[in-house]
Specification:
- The chain has about 180 residues and is of the alpha/beta class.
- It has a single domain, classed as P-loop containing nucleotide triphosphate hydrolases (Rossmann fold, 3-Layer(aba) Sandwich), CATH 3.40.50.
- The protein has a 5-stranded parallel beta sheet, sandwiched between helices.
- Helix 1 packs across helix 7, helix 3 packs parallel to helix 4 and helix 5 packs across helix 6.
- It is built from 7 helices and 5 strands, in the order βαβααβαβααβα.
- It binds adenosine-5'-triphosphate (ATP), (3R,4S,5R)-3,4,5-trihydroxycyclohex-1-ENE-1-carboxylic acid (SKM) and magnesium ion.
């Protein structure tokens, strides 16, 4: 049976990377990491605090370090949910290309807005017009998500479990191997 590589989920805020990543890691029997959470644990502070004290640059430095640490030294058998801005640095895109099967979870700007509207922990969305912010980010980032992704999965109008099943089926087809779905 082919060894299933690390699976890394990319996509905009609200695409469901954290939610779907957790579900597919359980089904595949892999360790789950959420890069935002790893960054917060390493810093001993939350993302809003890091943005406030160190700016977005400081956060991006921490993000690259955390990504490199995980792909180089962790189990090599994990599902990793990234933050929405992971594709902004070329060195991150290189790491993604070289070390994993990358899945882009696509969500329309309307869905991103709906799914992020109930929480306030995303500093980039603490603006007067989060829809305009999401749209601007999407225009820049959508081509970059596509550049790093092996698989693109549409998530609009789908329940998280159904998105997870679609991801698992696509990975299985891609690797032409068996994946245990519980
Ligand atoms: N397919 C879906 N259908 C409906 N709601 C969803 C779906 N996927 C995720 N959600 C909900 O949307 C919200 C955001 O999801 P989640 O935190 O997993 O996104 P994310 O991609 O990890 O975002 P971020 O980049 O900010 O970390 C959560 O409340 C989650 O329950
Ligand atoms: O889209 C982004 O740039 C971000 C997304 C979140 O997951 C966090 O990584 C942080 O809030 C930045
Ligand atoms: Mg997340």
């Amino acid at each position: 049976m082919t060894k299933v590589p690390n699976i890394i989920l990319v996509g905009p805020m609200g695409a469901g990377k954290t939610t779907i990543g957790r579900l597919i890691s359980q089904s595949m029997g892999k360790e789950f990491y959420d890069l935002d959470k790893v960054i917060e644990d390493n810093a001993g502070a939350d993302i809003s605090w890091i943005f406030e004290k160190e700016g977005e640059d400081g956060f991006r430095r921490r993000e690259t370090q955390a990504l490199a640490d995980i792909v180089q030294s962790k189990t090599q058998d994990c599902v990793l949910a990234t933050g929405g801005g992971i594709v902004m640095r070329e060195e991150n895109r290189d790491i993604l290309h070289e070390n994993a099967l990358v899945v882009y979870l696509y969500a329309s700007v309307a869905q991103q807005l709906y799914r992020t509207s109930k929480s306030t922990h995303r500093p980039l969305l603490q603006t007067g017009d989060p829809r305009a912010t999401l749209k601007k980010l999407f225009e820049v980032r959508d081509p970059l998500y596509k550049e790093v992704a092996t698989l693109v999965i549409e998530t609009d109008a789908r329940h998280p479990r159904s998105v997870a099943n679609k991801v698992l089926a696509a990975i299985k087809r891609h690797l032409n191997t068996e994946i245990i779905v519980s």
